[in-house]
Amino acid sequence: MAGRGTAYFTKRSRERAAQFSNPFVYLREDLEQARIRFLEEPSEGFYSGVFHRPYAGGKVGDPVICIEQDDDPPQLDGMTDECKLCEARDKPSMKFFVWVYVYYLLHLHQNPALDKDPQAPKWKAVKVGKGASMTTMFKQDVNKVKILLGGSRLKDEIDNSVAAASENDATLLEADYRFIRHGVPRSTDTRYVFIAIPKSSKLKDEVTKAIDELGPIADAALEGSVAFFSGGSDVAVAEEPEEEEEEAQEETAEEEEEAEAEAEDKDFATL
Ligand SMILES: [Zn+2]
């Protein structure tokens, strides 16, 4: 990573911004799910590090690497010797990043953007599940490469999926997966599961093309850090009430993970 300055990352970031407004795939509500395809072998395509998620303007911002607690932090323009976020008592944790192709998301509700903008995309109502457990959900087509961002708990789930695939002499790359959230917003006990979709082995041309165009995951993962350090220390760590509540509880690594796939006020319509 050394030697790549802000200009390099800014260029990459702009290119990515042209593709989508939010590079991460998030599940926001209980039972929300996405159909995804892992684009890289976990053994090769995971980038991990110790990251902060600083608050800015009432929202959780992009991950910022902790220059004190990460084992091998990159050299980025504007970096200081001490971590300003640790100094502001923000707690970093292990995060990993992996490229996935997101076909679509299934939401429990119609697009909330329609409340404000009648021209916003209307999601298609679809039946999900079978028999008594069948429910109606709302399908938001995405069809883009995104970054799956998680902590140790999500990583364990992926490891389980790798193990399950290898029992069938397969790898994680050989099927599409349903990525499902179990846990209401801000729950400290949110779980994510990955379920292989049978007979999904053939890649769409769009996915094959996306794999060819993937940039290094580490570059994408560090874009938030680049922006943070090059912008000085103007990203504040706000005193969020939720944070205080969580701090009052016994903190475990797992409890910190729930913020990974947590919703922020991103506009669904601009995914
Ligand atoms: Zn730090």
Quickly describe the structure:
The protein is α+β, with helices and mostly antiparallel strands and 271 residues long. 27% of the residues lie in helices and 24% in strands.
Task: Describe this structure as you would to a colleague.
28% of the residues are buried. With 271 residues, this protein is an alpha+beta fold. It has helices at 6-19, 42-45, 84-87, 152-167, 205-212, 217-221, 223-230, 241-248, 253-257; strands spanning 33-38, 47-52, 55-56, 59-60, 64-65, 93-107, 124-128, 135-150, 177-182, 191-196. Helix content is 27%, strand content 24%. The strands form 2 sheets. Strands 1, 2, 5, 6, 7, 8, 9 and 10 form an 8-stranded antiparallel beta sheet that branches. It has a two-stranded antiparallel ribbon with strand order 3-4. It is globular. It contains 9 helices and 10 strands. The model is unreliable at 238-270 (pLDDT under 50). The site of zinc ion has 8 residues, from helix 3. Zinc ion binds at residues 52, 66, 68-69, 83, 85-86, 92.
Secondary structure layout plus pairing:
Blueprint: H1 6-19, E1 33-38, H2 42-45, E2 47-52, E3 55-56, E4 59-60, E5 64-65, H3 84-87, E6 93-107, E7 124-128, E8 135-150, H4 152-167, E9 177-182, E10 191-196, H5 205-212, H6 217-221, H7 223-230, H8 241-248, H9 253-257
Antiparallel strand pairs: 1-6, 1-9, 2-5, 2-6, 3-4, 6-8, 7-8, 9-10
